[in-house]
Structure formats: structure tokens, C-alpha cells
Request: fold
Amino acid sequence: MSRRSGILEFAVLGLLREAPMHGYELRKRLNTSLGIFRAFSYGTLYPCLKTLVASGWLIEEPGSAPEEAVAASLAGRRAKIVYRLTAEGKEHFEELLSHTGPDAWEDEHFAARFAFFGQTEREVRMRVLEGRRSRLEERLEKMRASLARTRERLDDYTLELQRHGMESVEREVRWLNELIESERAGRDQRSGTDAPEGAAQQNRESGETGGLPRHGGSTRPDPSDDTAK
Reply:
């Protein structure tokens, strides 16, 4: 499985955990809610759905009344199919949510993971954010070293492009610092009270974001912004 197909499967499972959908709804949500999938087609989505069904993580259900499905068949049209997450699919998605390794820090995968932080345990969110920050700090150090070596050989426009790339990475690092501090503040606040048993699960179900900072009118970098790569 390629990295991109793995990200798509993760995103599909995450969206279907929220509610059953048919293919058109899924594609719309992937395009509008998850910017990293803006350009993908049904030719990419449906093989992914078939794989998830074959794995036992999704089931297909009629998306309309039986008589409407018959009418669609007689007219040569494909009846709508609704995809629903199975118990095994939910368990698999929970397992994927708990992963915090290097893949979760990369550009496209991080964007998909961040989109489902509302369903993710706070400690896992922290590890993913800190890993992403570490990865970007390494990238920034390499960019600075490369610029220092080649500055004299670059024309003004290429030099400005290099600076723009560095500024994009620096902006995301600042954003991550803010998120991490907010998560820590939320964790410290919760640790001072007796949280009811099962509170973490309730947070995931309700989409509560815990320590996510709220800034009216502030601008945050898009984790999938190509300029931050």
C-alpha cells in the first residue's frame, strides 16, 4: 500500500466514523474538509472503498428505498450505496489514531491526522504535535545551512523564494508551539480535577478539542500548505 492510499483509507474511516455516507458525500467531504484530497477522483475513491469493504472495515447498504433502487437499475443507473463503518472498522480506526510514529509527522499524513484530532486522545495529540515540530525544526536547520552555503550563488529571486520557504516553516513551528502549550495547559487543568471515568471517550465522540486555542480572526497555517514542505 502506498503512503497516499494509506492516508486516504485513514480519512475515509474517520469520516465514516462520524456518520454513514455514500460515495458522493464522501468525495465532497474529502475535498472540502481535507484539503490534501482536493484533486482526487472517484477512480481513486471507489477502489479504496472496495478494499475497505473486503477487509471487513466497511459494509455496503442500499442508499434508497427498494423501489427506487429497482427503478435506477431499470434505467441503467447505478443505485446509491451507503458505506457504514463496522465494529471491526471502528476498532481499526482507533488503532490508527493511536499511532504516533514518524509517518504521522509528514506533511500530508499530519494534515489528515490533525483533521481528526477531535477524536484523538490528548496524549496522542501531544506526541504527534511534538513529533511534527521536531521534524520541521530539523527541516528548518537544513534549509538555513543550505542557504548559508549557496547564498552567494543565488540570484535575488531564487534567494527570495528560499526565504519564503523558510518563513513558511518558521510560521508553522510557531503555530505548533502555540498548540502544544495550549494542550499542556488543558492537560494541567484537567489533572487538577477528578475527571469522570470514560471522559476521554466522551471527548472523542463529541469532538471536544480540549486545549485547542481559540483566536478570533487569527491566521493559522494550513498543515497541508505546500510552501511548508
In short: The radius of gyration is 21 Å. The CA atoms of residues 33 and 115 lie 8 Å apart.
